[in-house]
Give the backbone structure.
Amino acid sequence: MTSRHVRRDPSEGDASGRGGRLGVRDWLGGIRLSGFMVIMLGLVVLAVLVLVPTVGTYLDQRQRIAALAESVQLTQQQVEDLTAQERRFTDPAYITTQARERLYYVTPGDVVYLVDNDLPAARQPRDAQQVSDQLEETPTDWMSQLVRSVAAAGVARTAAAPGPGPLP
């Protein structure tokens, strides 16, 4: 009985002069495929083909779960803020303060002072124009412009519908 596979000493050089290293052809020539190995290789390929879509679905679902968890956290924060605001509006002092500041409500007997132009000089608008004391007449008559615009719109040509051919 002869053996096809010959062991070589790595310190000895082979006939090709590569110093103990096997070439790709020599390596591939030494591989033997048995029926069991072919079946196992087929099962591994089949397992990969079955599991790849499942892993993709799993990763997609994990991303969705993370996005939904973040959405739930933001919604919980909004609920907490609204609950705190609701608690504030149950306080009569807060309601009174908000009515005074926002709506300028006062209790009977209070004197209210509203300060106009209380902005500092740096925040004053720079392009404020003076208001004229004299009435000025506009040089155009808006009614005639309106009639001319409507007449021009009625006379204007409409665009033709494109034909079935390709667009230019």
User: Anything to note?
Assistant: The mean pLDDT is 79. The longest helix spans residues 35-89. The helical segments are 24-29, 35-89, 92-103, 142-155.
